Amino acid sequence: MSSLRPDGRSREMLRRQRLHRSRVPSASGSAEYRIDGTIVVAAVHGPLRIAPWREAHDRGVIDVELSAPGWMSRDDQRACEGRLRGAIERCVELRDFPRFGLRISARVVSDDGNAEAACVNAVCCALIDANVPMRGLICANACALTREGSMVIDPTKREETEARAVVRACALSKHREKDEIAIVGCSTTGALTEKEYLDAIAFIVDATAAVVNIQKKSIARYEVHGKLHEDEAPKKRQNTEDAPMEGMENRPLG
Amino acid sequence: MEARAYERLYPDEAFEKTLETSTRRDGRPLGRARARACACGTATNALGSALARHGATTALAGARASVATPRAEAPNEGFLEVRVTFAPQASELERPGRESDKAEACAARVRDALTSAEVLGSDLSDLCIERGVFAWRLMLDVVVLDDDGAAADAALSAAVAALRDVVLPEATVKRGKIVIGDEEEGVDGADDGMRKGTPLNVRTTPVCLTTALYKEHLLVDPTHAEEALSECEVSVVLTEDGMIRGVFKNGGEVEATEDILMKCIAAARLQYAASAKVILDASEDDDY
């Protein structure tokens, strides 16, 4: 018998999520993602030319900027930027635009809990809006462990501050064989046992299905034809440019 | 071709070859962490300091304190501010100015680990001098002097050892003003090298272990070269009660399955006893 949370949800219920694409007209792509009181606006500029000393010869370069004035301390913002960058590196096909750069900026307009997940989701939708080539959809969520020991998903700000521990993770949505659980990035605060941590991760990965539906619907509404190929298993990129020269493979060392 | 040249030109292939024999370049098996060493009291002017070495990765932590007014909503709590920076000579990625992403990630891990582990108790009431009026603001600066992989581990060890080494000077409130230390010196005035004051009560010893994911291999406590080649790292912070105080994975090209996460946590558990002993031994050496 699960008790209801203060806002009437059960522990597995997510809050109402709303997505508004093309919020920033001048950017290549943008999105505003709302989870009830948490609002994040993300904008993507690019691929665009960057300074020559920053170019990478085989892949694109990503610049992430997060601003959450008043909602997060400066250090937290930087840490969040790092995690955002990791999530983006996983889902964007960087090798499709070598020597170019992608500028992604996210702004937390208001934070009522789960802001980092909203940032990741907003950025993913902004990338879709900008037609950046991607390997799949990335979605994030957070799971809080209350003092009574129960796990609740999508915590509000109050639940986050009162919780014993909070696990934030993001996962790539793709065709999963055998219900495997795989995350792209994660971070935790507070104390938890190993079992609680693994349960929380599984919980979050299950919840990504709901978020992915919203992202897919937004694509369907805007695109006339053409399906995002996230249902195929991701192909392993052949690193042809890193293979040794002919004749080197069979030589012994030294 | 010469082995070292091959390593520089084709690092991936060279690394794969060494991994085939299940040992790494420095001779360690995949699952073994480097030897850890720690020394306290290295910076004499700081209230507490420690130097931690994990293989070649070195981090120096120093703590200083000043008196501050506690916040209105927490009148009997002090402040603990942790700052982690990388010295310019630490690695080739560092440039003066904005911190590189790696340094930010490391700083975030150490800060989160110290907060989650509640090293000074669940609230900072140990740092209170007089409720609502005076409290200690403890500023802990960690500098990573040399980054040879797994800098967060060394930074956290140094930070915890420095906190254990801190001796807060005696502070009394006389006629509404704060007086640090003794105004009247002892009659003989001899400085016998012992610090007067109350040592900080550090309740737990969090230890961090970083594991790198390289293709399907898990490398415990990677060196700088291994970190550069591996796709991502997972850092696990544990305390002596077996609770996880942090699992940090910063994305990257590769996902971590549940299996991998469990292995990383198990590796951290195995390593915990040895690492905690090093930190505790280092801070036991000083006599008060």
From TrEMBL, chain A:
MF term (GO), any: RNA binding
Name the UniProt key words of this record, in alphabetical order. Exosome, Nucleus, rRNA processing
Boundaries of every Exoribonuclease phosphorolytic domain copy: 15-133
Question: Which residues constitute the signal peptide according to the record?
Answer: none
Q: InterPro entries from the entry?
A: ExoRNase_PH_dom1, ExoRNase_PH_dom2_sf, PNPase/RNase_PH_dom_sf, Ribosomal_Su5_D2-typ_SF, RNase_PH
Q: What is this protein called?
A: Exoribonuclease, phosphorolytic domain 2
List localization entries.
Nucleus
Cite the PANTHER family for this sequence: EXOSOME COMPLEX COMPONENT (PTHR11953), EXOSOME COMPLEX COMPONENT RRP46 (PTHR11953:SF1)
Q: Which GO terms describe its biological process?
A: nuclear mRNA surveillance; poly(A)-dependent snoRNA 3'-end processing; rRNA catabolic process; rRNA processing; U4 snRNA 3'-end processing
Under Pfam families, the record lists: RNase_PH
Please note every region of biased composition (Basic and acidic residues): 1-15, 230-240
Per the record's keyword annotation, is Repeat included, yes or no? Answer: no
Disordered: annotated span: 1-25, 230-254
Q: Does the keyword rRNA processing apply?
A: yes
Q: Which domain of life is it from?
A: Eukaryota
> What protein family is recorded?
Belongs to the RNase PH family.
List cellular component terms (GO): cytoplasmic exosome (RNase complex); nuclear exosome (RNase complex); nucleolus
Gene3D superfamilies the UniProt entry points to: GHMP Kinase, N-terminal domain (3.30.230.70)
Species source reads: Ostreococcus tauri
UniProtKB/TrEMBL annotation, chain B:
Extract the GO molecular function terms from the UniProt entry.
mRNA 3'-UTR AU-rich region binding
Q: List keywords of the entry alphabetically.
A: Cytoplasm, Exosome, Nucleus, RNA-binding, rRNA processing
Chief location category: cytoplasm
GO cellular component entries = cytoplasmic exosome (RNase complex); nuclear exosome (RNase complex); nucleolus
- Biological process (GO) annotations? exonucleolytic trimming to generate mature 3'-end of 5.8S rRNA from tricistronic rRNA transcript (SSU-rRNA, 5.8S rRNA, LSU-rRNA); nuclear mRNA surveillance; nuclear polyadenylation-dependent rRNA catabolic process; rRNA catabolic process; TRAMP-dependent tRNA surveillance pathway; U1 snRNA 3'-end processing; U4 snRNA 3'-end processing; U5 snRNA 3'-end processing
Q: Does the keyword Cell inner membrane apply?
A: no
Instruction: Kindly give the PANTHER family that the UniProt entry links to this protein.
Output: EXOSOME COMPLEX COMPONENT RRP43, EXOSOME COMPLEX EXONUCLEASE RIBOSOMAL RNA PROCESSING PROTEIN
Q: Which family does it belong to?
A: Belongs to the RNase PH family.
Name of the molecule in the record:
Ribosomal RNA-processing protein 43
> Native species of this protein?
Ostreococcus tauri
